[in-house]
């Protein structure tokens, strides 16, 4: 904008518009081109605006609409949202702005096509798949999105009230004017490790027991309504159960009756989780940790028991051998011929042994005499 003598020259480029005011009052709108205006008293002012895909100040629009409603309707598109309404504004078919409730925006429409899609969020809090792609850049401010996996249960809460159970997949909800929350619960079996806790047995021996529990959520709605934290609640419950079970048993009973202890713990815990929508599939003692001096005493007891068992087995074998010898002696006493044959068998073994010794020494004289006596003993007494 330049001044020359009494004339004012204003140049408006393509994609621009100029609002010409005289003494602060709108006179007209200048289109693209070069404009020479007579301004004797320097009363004209031109404000140039970019009109391609841009907004116009809402306060200026309110003044312009009050003064020249025809001009405001020709140049601008005003978008205003209600209490339970959001609007998606597209410029030349491209979604650009997402307006939340009680918002006003004014757009130039002389060079850009303005499309407005209004959505009543009070009817359905869900965000449609088409709208979800349109509000990608503004999603975090007006909507909440979650993905429910195949092994999960998704519970939708609106203003703290359970509305429905969501199927696996992608879900998005409008958060304007309301509180939206989706609670996801894993339906797969989960392992809960109960770390060692020091406790006293019935015979006043301190020990620590480590357990493992496997739990599974079978009723998500009931679980969320009754238990704030499933794993923490189950952890404390198993702790109470093992303390009560160990306090009523001696150390020997704890170490020897592990199966009975596991069954008692499972019954105790299952009876208390039945109303919470959680199922305890397995629960058992993993480790029993004894103090150092107690562990040494237990090892000595085990060693003594094994030694006593070994001695018992040895005595049983000796008794069996003695019983076998007694049976043999009884047979020989009842049958003299059998005794005679036993003597000859023993003599033959002796001869073989002596013969080996004599042959090794190179002297066979003693062997011949011994063989002669052996022949005579074998000969019948009648001859």
Report strand %: 25-35%
Mean pLDDT: 82
Return the CATH topology of the domain at 188-294. Tetrahydropterin Synthase, Chain A
- The termini sit apart by 165 Å
Instruction: Provide the low-confidence segments as ranges.
Output: 358-365
Rg over CA atoms:
52 Å
Describe the overall structure.
- Residues 143-302 form the Band domain.
- This protein is an alpha+beta fold and 383 residues long.
- Among the domains are: 121-187, no CATH class; 188-294, 2-Layer Sandwich (Tetrahydropterin Synthase, Chain A), CATH 3.30.479.
- The chain has helices at residues 58-67, 69-75, 129-134, 139-142, 220-226, 230-247, 251-256, 258-273, 292-334, 336-361, 365-378; strands at 2-4, 7-12, 16-22, 25-30, 33-38, 44-50, 55-56, 76-80, 85-91, 94-99, 104-108, 114-120, 143-148, 152-158, 161-166, 169-174, 180-186, 190-200, 206-217, 278-289.
- The strands form seven sheets. A three-stranded antiparallel β-sheet has the order 1-2-5, with no helix packed on it. A three-stranded antiparallel β-sheet has the order 4-3-6, with no helix packed on it. Strands 7-11-8 form a three-stranded antiparallel β-sheet.
Explain the layout of strands and helices:
Blueprint: E1 2-4, E2 7-12, E3 16-22, E4 25-30, E5 33-38, E6 44-50, E7 55-56, H1 58-67, H2 69-75, E8 76-80, E9 85-91, E10 94-99, E11 104-108, E12 114-120, H3 129-134, H4 139-142, E13 143-148, E14 152-158, E15 161-166, E16 169-174, E17 180-186, E18 190-200, E19 206-217, H5 220-226, H6 230-247, H7 251-256, H8 258-273, E20 278-289, H9 292-334, H10 336-361, H11 365-378
Antiparallel strand pairs: 1-2, 2-5, 3-4, 3-6, 7-11, 8-11, 9-10, 9-12, 13-16, 14-15, 14-17, 18-19, 19-20
Helix pairs in contact: 1-2, 6-8, 9-10, 10-11
């Amino acid at each position: 904008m330049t001044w020359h003598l009494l004339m004012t020259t204003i140049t408006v480029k393509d994609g621009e518009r100029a609002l010409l005011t005289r003494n602060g009052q709108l006179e007209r709108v200048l289109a693209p081109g070069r404009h020479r205006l007579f301004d004797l008293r320097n009363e004209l002012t031109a404000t140039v605006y970019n009109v391609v895909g841009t907004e116009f100040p809402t306060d200026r629009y309110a003044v312009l609409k009050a003064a020249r409603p025809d001009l405001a309707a020709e140049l601008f598109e005003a978008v205003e949202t209600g209490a339970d309404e959001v609007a998606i504004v597209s410029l030349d078919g491209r979604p650009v702005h997402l307006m939340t409730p009680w918002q006003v925006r004014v757009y130039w429409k002389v060079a850009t096509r303005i499309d407005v899609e209004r959505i009543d969020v009070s009817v359905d809090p869900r965000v449609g798949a088409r709208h979800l792609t349109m509000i990608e850049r503004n999603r975090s401010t007006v909507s909440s999105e979650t993905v429910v996996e195949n092994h999960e249960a998704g519970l939708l809460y609106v203003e703290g009230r359970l509305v429905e159970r969501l199927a696996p997949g992608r879900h998005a909800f409008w958060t304007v004017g309301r509180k939206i929350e989706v609670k996801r619960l894993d339906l797969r079996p989960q392992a809960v490790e109960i770390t060692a806790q020091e406790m006293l047995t019935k015979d006043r021996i301190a020990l620590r027991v480590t357990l493992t529990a496997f739990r599974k959520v079978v009723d998500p709605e009931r679980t969320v309504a009754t238990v704030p934290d499933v794993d923490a609640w189950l952890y404390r419950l198993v702790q109470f159960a093992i303390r009560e079970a160990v306090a009523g048993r001696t150390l020997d009973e704890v170490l020897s009756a592990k199966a009975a202890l596991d069954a008692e713990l499972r019954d105790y815990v299952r009876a208390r989780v039945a109303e919470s929508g959680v199922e305890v599939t397995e629960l058992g003692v993993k480790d029993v940790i004894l103090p150092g001096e107690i562990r040494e005493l237990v090892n000595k007891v085990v060693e003594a028991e094994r030694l006593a068992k070994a001695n018992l087995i040895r005595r049983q074998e000796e008794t069996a051998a003695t019983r076998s010898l007694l049976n043999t002696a009884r047979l020989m006493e009842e049958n003299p011929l059998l005794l005679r044959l036993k003597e000859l068998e023993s003599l033959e073994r002796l001869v073989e042994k002596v013969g080996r010794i004599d042959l090794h020494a190179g002297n066979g004289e003693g062997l011949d005499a011994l063989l002669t006596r052996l022949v005579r003993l074998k000969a019948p007494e009648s001859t």
